[in-house]
Structure formats: C-alpha cells, structure tokens
Amino acid sequence: MDQSKKSNCDTPFKDLSNNTYAGGQHSSNSSTVVDAKARRREMDRAGATSMTNEQKSELNEKRRESYQLNKDEINKKRRQAMKI
C-alpha cells in the first residue's frame, strides 16, 4: 500500500505506562496515589476519633519512648564516630 493512500485514522499507539485501571475508570498513577493517601488519612482520623483518651495516651507514650531510643542511638553513633 502506498503511504500517500493511507487513511488518517492510523495513529501511533498511546503510551499507557502511566495509567492504571482503578475503580471502574482509568486514571494516572499520581491521582491513585493521592486517592490512596486520602483514604489512609480518613482511616487514621476515624481510628483516632474512636480511641479512648487512655488509648491515645498509651500510644503517645510509646511514640515518645521510641523517638527517644532512636535519638539516643543516633547520638551514640555520632559520639563514636567523633572519637575515631
């Protein structure tokens, strides 16, 4: 077939590497990531509102303890590095 007689409907394939099929509609990966993050935030909010004050204080205490342990470990490594 001669190139000049080809119809205009022959278009190159569309790049689909950044698209996914989610929830019955096509969307790009960036919007599904945002949607996933929004869902996660909603779930976290719902979990936080359903906790009692005692549960919240226990969770915060564990977070503070973990933070302090990590901070102490990092500072210990820094002090050892400075001695060498």
Characterization of this structure:
The chain has about 80 residues and is mainly alpha-helical. The chain has a domain at about 25-84. Helix content is about 65%, strand content about 10%. It has two helices and two strands, in the order E-E-H-H. It has helices at about 30-50, 55-84; strands at about 20, 25-30. A two-stranded antiparallel ribbon has the order 1-2. Strand 1 (about 20) and strand 2 form a beta hairpin. The termini are far apart. The model has no long low-confidence stretch (mean pLDDT about 80).
Draw up the topology in text:
Blueprint: E1 19-22, E2 25-28, H1 29-50, H2 53-83
Antiparallel strand pairs: 1-2
Note the overall shape: flat
The number of helices is 2
Mean pLDDT: 78
Total number of beta strands: 2
Summing up helix and strand content along with how strands pair, one would put the structural category as mainly alpha
Helices and strands, in order, run as EEHH
Amino-to-carboxy terminus distance: 76 Å
Estimated helix fraction: 55-70%
Radius of gyration: 27 Å
Q: Major sheet: size, sense and barrel closure? A: 2 strands, antiparallel
Percent of residues in beta strands?
5-15%
**Order of adjacent strands in the largest pleated sheet:** 1-2
**Low-confidence parts lasting 5 or more residues at pLDDT below 50?**
none
List keywords for this structure.
84 residues; mainly alpha; 2 helices
Produce a short descriptive summary:
This protein is mainly alpha-helical and 84 residues long. The protein has a domain of 58 residues.
